[in-house]
Specification:
9 strands; GMP Synthetase, Chain A, domain 3; two-stranded antiparallel sheet; elongated; about 130 residues
């Protein structure tokens, strides 16, 4: 997922006016988190003893993942929700005609696309090759 973000943002930033080349690195907090439906069943059995004897109780718990069948006959877990990870930070190395104008535009663009505050975005000048 990070690589996908990196590639997409690099392509977009390279299209900005005045930007010659850019390299982007995005870091995420975690991977996608899925919640699956499950079948939960609890059975309790109680036996009472005869006069003067003690009683006994046993509990059985069964917890299984709810599955669904696909068109090809296989079974997959039934997903109830999916949560995408949050962006931890973004680093951009850029070679631009006017670095400070490009930096402001890049921070604005990334902030809107990824919903990331500006303090989590670092834009630095790219080293020029001699």
């Amino acid at each position: 997922m990070e690589t996908n973000y990196d590639n997409q943002l690099t392509q977009i930033i390279d299209q900005l006016q005045g930007v010659n080349s850019a390299v982007v690195m995005v870091t995420l907090d975690s991977t996608n988190q899925l919640s699956v439906a499950s079948n939960e069943r609890q059975t309790t059995q109680t036996q009472k003893g005869t006069a003067g004897q003690s009683s006994s109780q046993s509990t059985t718990e069964d917890n299984s993942v709810f599955t669904q069948h696909t068109a090809d006959g296989s079974t997959i877990p039934f997903v109830t929700s999916q949560q995408s990870p949050k962006v931890r930070g973004v680093v951009v190395l850029v070679n631009a005609k006017d670095f400070f104008v490009a930096k402001a535009e890049i921070i604005d663009a990334i902030g809107h696309v990824l919903d990331v505050p500006a303090y989590k975005i670092s834009v630095e000048p790219k080293r020029s090759n001699p």
